[in-house]
Design a protein that fits this description.
Number of domains: 2
Number of strands: 12
Structural class: alpha/beta
Oligomer: single chain
Number of helices: 11
CATH class of the largest domain: Alpha Beta
Strand order of the largest sheet: 1-2-12-9-10-11
CATH architecture of the largest domain: 3-Layer(aba) Sandwich
Radius of gyration: 20 Å
């Protein structure tokens, strides 16, 4: 009998990932992040079944570790010796960490205005850090030039299709947790509802009918997690991993300071709108020209979801409310998803008894954002 422990994290799904040698995968234990129910925050908006998927529990503090682990493994298999990444912070930290784990060197191009805590983390892993002034697109352009040198591998999480497969594991984990129209929290805390009342976990609507609709709200800039999640859910339907082949409605959350997807959705467009970026507290989704924009909009329409842009003051309010009511300290980029959900609830897109999962993609410890004035 094989006495080795079963693999955990994203590499449990190695057969569904593109790496050729997953048995020697570059890993820090990414994936299998907690799924927790938000009774108090949900009650604030009349929602009874809101969950948070705590992606900041990944090794470097964001969901980017899922895609980066797979991408760096592919770079190793391709014989690369040096990684190049462009990032507002989280992806740069992930690239630097996994490069260190693999024994590779790394250069990260980042906006000059990126949060200092994220830049400090990148430096801590030994990566060369190049700060680029100007818009986010200038950072990506600089990295593309550097990534074209021999022996280098341009990670390019916003462009590289190989960054998406690792993010499918986000959907795999939710499909595993979704059973009989309800979620099992992880780590398991038992079927106890608000104020310890088990009856509040019943999966019936206020009218007495079962509710099968469920939603996933994701902060979306370049769309790596959004597209990975959608592909993952489609795979789960094909493999029978979702009860009754029920797919969630996917909602992309943006800031009004940079909302090419939300503007395109509102106008019925199939391509991202041309926008003029303004300074934003949500650096992680401040992508004015998303390379996956058409794919994101198609997934929104196919799933019956939406793209919603929130005012920055509302985003900071939800950041603070989430910490106060639930003890979850999210960066402003993640809080954009809660601001979007609050808006969707007010507008009737999400029913009181429908399940909602919000991706908390990054930690406030790395990017607290400004205090509210």
């Amino acid at each position: 009998m094989d006495s080795r422990p079963a693999r955990t994290g994203i590499w449990r799904h190695a057969a569904r990932l593109p790496a050729r040698t997953p048995q020697s995968a570059v890993t820090l234990g990414e994936g299998d992040t907690p799924l927790v129910r938000l009774h108090r925050w949900g009650a604030r908006y009349g929602l009874r079944r809101v969950y948070a998927k705590l992606e900041f529990a990944n090794p470097t503090g964001s969901y980017k570790d899922r895609g980066m682990a797979v991408l760096v493994q592919l770079a190793v298999e391709a014989g690369a010796r040096h990684l190049v990444e462009d990032s507002s912070g989280n992806a740069g930290a992930a690239a630097a960490a996994y490069a260190a784990r693999a024994g590779m060197t790394c250069t990260v191009y980042a906006p000059a205005a990126a949060p200092e805590a994220k830049l400090r983390q990148i430096r801590a892993y030994g990566a060369e850090l190049v700060l680029v002034p100007g818009p986010r697109a200038a950072v990506a352009d600089a990295a593309r030039q550097a990534g074209a040198t021999p022996g280098a591998y341009h990670v390019s999480h916003n462009d590289n299709p190989a960054f998406v497969p690792g993010n499918k594991t986000f959907a795999y984990e939710l499909a595993e947790a979704y059973r009989n129209g309800e979620f099992q929290e992880w780590p398991s805390v038992g079927p106890v509802g608000e104020d310890g009342d088990p009856s509040s976990t019943e999966r019936v609507t206020s009218s007495g009918e079962q509710s099968s609709a469920w939603h996933v709200v994701i902060p979306t800039g370049g769309g790596a997690l959004f597209c990975g999640a959608w592909h993952g859910f489609l795979e789960e339907r094909e493999l029978g991993g979702l009860d009754s082949a029920i797919l969630p409605r996917l909602h992309a959350a943006q800031t009004v300071a940079c909302a090419p997807l939300a503007q395109a959705f509102a106008a019925g467009m199939t391509e991202p709108a041309i926008v003029e970026r303004r300074p934003s507290v949500c650096g992680g989704i401040e992508i004015e020209r998303p390379a996956r924009g058409r794919e994101i909009l198609a997934a929104i329409h196919q799933s019956g979801g939406t793209a919603t842009a929130s005012e920055e003051v509302a985003i900071l309010e939800e950041r603070d409310r989430l910490a106060l009511l639930e003890g979850i300290y999210a960066e402003p980029t993640s809080a954009a998803a809660f601001a979007a959900l609050a808006q969707l609830a007010r507008e009737g897109y999400v029913g009181a008894d429908e399940i909602v999962v919000v991706a908390v993609t990054g930690s406030g410890l790395k990017d607290p954002g400004p205090d509210r004035s």
